[in-house]
Design brief:
This protein has five helices and four strands, in the order E-H-E-H-E-E-H-H-H. The chain is of the alpha/beta class. A four-stranded mixed β-sheet has the order 1-2-4-3.
Amino acid sequence: MSTVTVTREKKNLGHPETAGLVKRAVLAVLEAEGIREACHVDVMLTDDEGIHAINLEHRGVDAATDVLSFPLNELTPGEFDPEGCEVDFDTDEILLGDMVLDIPRCEAQGVEYGHGYRREVSYLAVHSTLHLLGYDHLDEGAEKALMRSREEAVMTRLRTGRGG
């Protein structure tokens, strides 16, 4: 059984259902990708100030963003190879990496895009988990199209697609 650890950088950040939504989204990606091995993902909930500092420190980008992903493994999209992954020797779980979510930005984008907080936080968790599994969208070609199709497939499974 895979585990998702969700922590808050500050008290009272987010909504009561946030941890559950994030965990459900991460586990849905693992299931959709056919990953049967026990994996672990660490998720930190923060705000604009917190994610800005992390983005600057780790990526050299002097700006806030909605989500950051820090994969621990170099994986090929759709070809999960547990043999090449970091493992927690205490739990035998595969360590996929870390995710950082900007909760106030999730709230604002949910309003801006007209689909609400629940869908936005779920989408960003799906998006980030796919990054942890090697998917990317840096080019406008096949890589981006593949990642977007996987996002939509998982969001449909979660019943939080664009219409849900």
